[in-house]
Specification:
Shape of chain A: globular
Radius of gyration of chain A: 26 Å
Distance between the termini of chain A: 88 Å
Number of domains of chain A: 4
CATH topology of the largest domain in chain A: Pyrimidine Nucleoside Phosphorylase, Chain A, domain 2
CATH class of the largest domain in chain A: Alpha Beta
Helix content of chain A: 25-40%
Oligomer: homodimer
Largest sheet of chain A: 6 strands, mixed, barrel
Strand content of chain A: 15-25%
Structural class of chain A: alpha/beta
CATH superfamily of the largest domain in chain A: Nucleoside phosphorylase/phosphoribosyltransferase catalytic domain
Number of strands of chain A: 18
CATH architecture of the largest domain in chain A: 3-Layer(aba) Sandwich
């Protein structure tokens, strides 16, 4: 045991961390990333320890200012003891060995992640273990259930059909959610939708809908809005659904690991926590999307349905084409333009078709109609009215002039040769839109004028790039030089062109 | 690109890190653990970025004070651009998938680790990948060679036989190195020995020899001492041999991952870097040692020899019993007592026997004799003289009174029943010795009076615990209550005792 004086230092770590001088570390035979128990009065807490040679002198302990809430001030004396590593570290190692974890072990891992007990190296090993061995079906159910039960859970009136839809992502512009939700809510389905913000994409649903209205809703606001309109558009981060999810995503991010089991657990845990009992999952597959083949998309769908069943949720999956963007707009405001077009019965054909297909599946799943019903609702502009009702309830205005919100700096890219569009690179589209400023700059992004298999003549408009600053537009154009996201190849056969 | 003002903050991370406000992060579409390029004047550096809501305000960048060496002061303006993740992150992911890495990819990983380019999550994934898939023979050779070439390499006169010995660890008290080195140097073998400090054991060879003399030697000091005496006892950390090794060990530590391939690479890279061409590896196996079975010990020996051959080193392995401590003393001073006893021709029998076996193998390997030669040298006290010569050259004194250096607080543990010693728990011995203060408190540790298969009567002395403070002794005794490291079981048969 050591008695040390508190020194506040400016650290803001992801997990509770204290910093000791190397000599004090040696004195309690502790190494960096070991745990120590810090005792102050009758309170104690187990934290990760890091060492320093200079930042904290011998006899002192470096704490974050958050410790002030326990009444600790600069110079306060606290006691330090070596402590055990959390049990979950042993289970992560077990999983690395490929051994199936028990329900209790799965629970402990989720609990320790929730309590920020794991260091970054340990979290890196956890996501690696799941990536290499993936969850077994039993583990998958256990992990998902624990993710649900460790966060907030919404309760709706008995026998309410609560529906949801979700896309596993990877396809730029694919903004079906607002339209599908508006159609479903028009049919009297309860659909409290929470969505994410972009991590690596040009916009998340929450980023896009924020153009229209406030999406940072409290639990109470969600309940009130859903009671009035049947639906809402909330940012998932503003409510505490399956809180371990964000922490796991953060650890997956640096290596862009996205193990299938964790994807399923993350999605279904949030759906279960919001109280859904009927869920449609959109699984796009193809070139440069998350799932590479129809076969793998079908396997993934099977797992979603299996876990859904175990959690008493009726899950249906729509396997869709993901080899090019959906709609024309990519980036928040540009996507809003597409949404309003479709809600007015016009709009990019592919976005309209996809929304109707998904809404049709959802309506069938809850016995409230089919794709025909969805089409009638959309074309009668009832869905537009419902959409406007929701955004007004969320503090937004209807009929805003979206074009005024577009980035002032614009560059149109034209075709340099005749041919056919044979590839659209989703990842390059994403990169350019993000460098142009999306999603932070709402008016930034790409507006596409073409799709796969279109015949193109030299000089045809391919796409516009929008940015809110000249610098970002230049940066995006610089990126464009490395690779044009729209690939035009000459028609097959020997003769390319006769001049 | 963002222009930000510098604010110095008290962080001391393991890799170059800057801290930005969340809003500025969003402005360049960066997430936590992404890389950014910081430009100041005509200098720029790629660093990991972390986000904060409060610690650093919008418009500022939080830097460690080390940035002062570039002429940066508080308020200096620097430019920030998004930057690519290091290539090695892609290769780590490839290895997680089980795909063999090319030599170039192995090189990049070691280079990026050396340059501190990887974040903790990425390092956690790296050690996990090696743990799950281990290095292929090709990777193992490539990694080892790169570990060598990225650090300091000693050059000795042409045709000098440079020998070394190494134990893979896991057995408390196993302090053969000083004795084997003294015997070998007496035979005229050049043996510039570098050793480690303890990470999880009660003492590393460097911790123990530090009781006699200074072990923090520079490259020049090592050369001078070896020229005069033929050998030295240096702490490996004081010279820059295979510098990536320490960084990898640090990442393996939290999960106590010790993948076989990395173990081999780490050991042989250091031997190659010091210029060895003949190496004896001690591989203890058995209950609670690193290797569990003879079969696995033989496999490991085969790999050591294979990599050794590729690196032009003559490697021989001694597979030894590791199911109990070697010698009686565990902890720096207590081990020194054993060493001096053995060098005087007495000493714990098992330590003496093991040293002679290892020295015999080493002498045979370089054609300078065998176990008989070693025994003659030891019993003639020539090895003791050589040992004293070395420690005096390293600033130590011979014939110091080791008993005076023992911890003042001592407790003897007696047998509570008759029987036979059927197990000695290496891990519990280690835990108790460390809690008692070893290796920081040189006089702390355990002195064992018994070994496996010894017949014990109730009241027999089993071991002493030494500590330098009363509190640490109490703490060790508390740990002892949970499990006595010496297991005594009644003799087999129905009758246990007749009273």
């Amino acid at each position: 045991m050591l008695e040390l004086k508190v020194k506040f230092i400016d650290i803001d770590p992801n997990y509770p961390l204290v910093i000791l001088n190397k000599e004090d570390m040696a004195d309690i035979a502790a190494n960096t990333t070991d745990r120590v128990e810090v005792t102050y009065g009758n309170k104690s807490k187990i934290v990760v320890v890091d060492s320093t040679e200079k930042l904290v002198k011998k006899g002192y302990i470096g704490l974050n200012r958050k410790a002030m809430k326990y009444g600790i001030t600069s110079g306060t004396k606290v006691f330090i003891d070596p402590a055990e590593t959390p049990e979950s570290v042993e289970y992560i190692k077990k999983k690395l060995k490929g051994i199936e974890l028990s329900r209790k072990e799965c629970n402990t891992i989720i609990d320790d992640i929730n309590a920020n007990k794991l260091s970054d190296i340990e979290l890196g090993a956890f996501v690696s273990a799941i990536y290499v061995h993936d969850y077994t079906p039993k583990e998958l159910v256990a992990i998902t259930e624990r993710m649900v039960s460790t966060g907030i859970q919404f309760k709706w009136k008995n026998n309410t059909v609560v529906a949801d839809k979700h896309c596993i992502g990877g396809v730029p512009g694919n903004r079906t959610t607002p339209i599908v939700i508006a159609i479903a809510a028009t049919c009297g389905i309860t659909i409290p939708k929470t969505s994410s913000r972009a991590i690596t994409s040009p916009a998340g649903t929450a980023d896009t809908l924020e153009v229209f209205c406030n999406v940072n809703l409290t639990m109470k606001q969600i309940e009130k809005i859903v009671e009035k309109t049947g639906a809402c558009f909330a940012w998932g981060g503003s409510v505490d659904l399956a809180p371990s999810d964000d922490k796991i995503i953060k650890a997956e991010y640096p290596l862009s690991l996205d193990p299938e089991g964790q994807l399923i657990a993350s999605v279904l845990a949030k759906k279960k926590a919001i109280g859904s009992n009927a869920v449609v999952i959109d699984i796009p597959y193809g070139f440069e999307s998350k799932v590479d083949s129809l076969e793998n998309a079908e396997k993934l769908a099977g797992k979603f349905k299996m876990v859904g069943k175990k959690l008493d949720m009726n899950v249906d999956c729509a396997i869709t084409h993901g080899n090019q963007p959906i709609g024309n707009g990519i980036g928040p405001v540009l996507e809003c333009i597409d949404i309003i077009e479709v809600l007015n019965g016009r709009g990019p054909d592919d976005l309209r078709e996809k929304c109707l297909e998904l809404a049709g599946i959802l309506l069938r799943l809850v016995g409230k109609g089919d794709i025909k019903t969805a089409e009638n609702i959309l074309d009668s502009k009832k869905a537009l009215k419902k959409f406007n009702d929701i955004i007004v309830m969320q503090g937004g205005k209807k009929d805003i002039d979206l074009y005024k919100l577009l980035g002032k700096y614009k560059k149109t890219i034209f075709a340099k040769s005749n041919g056919k569009v044979t590839k659209i690179f989703n990842k390059q589209i994403t990169r350019i839109a993000r460098i142009a400023g999306a999603p932070k700059d709402k008016g930034a992004g790409i507006y596409l004028y073409t799709k796969l298999d279109t015949n193109i003549k030299k000089g045809d408009r391919l796409f516009d790039i929008y940015a809110e600053t000249e610098f970002k537009l230049k940066h995006a154009l610089y990126l464009l030089k490395a690779k044009n996201p729209v690939l035009i190849e000459a028609k097959k056969g020997i003769l390319v062109e006769e001049i």
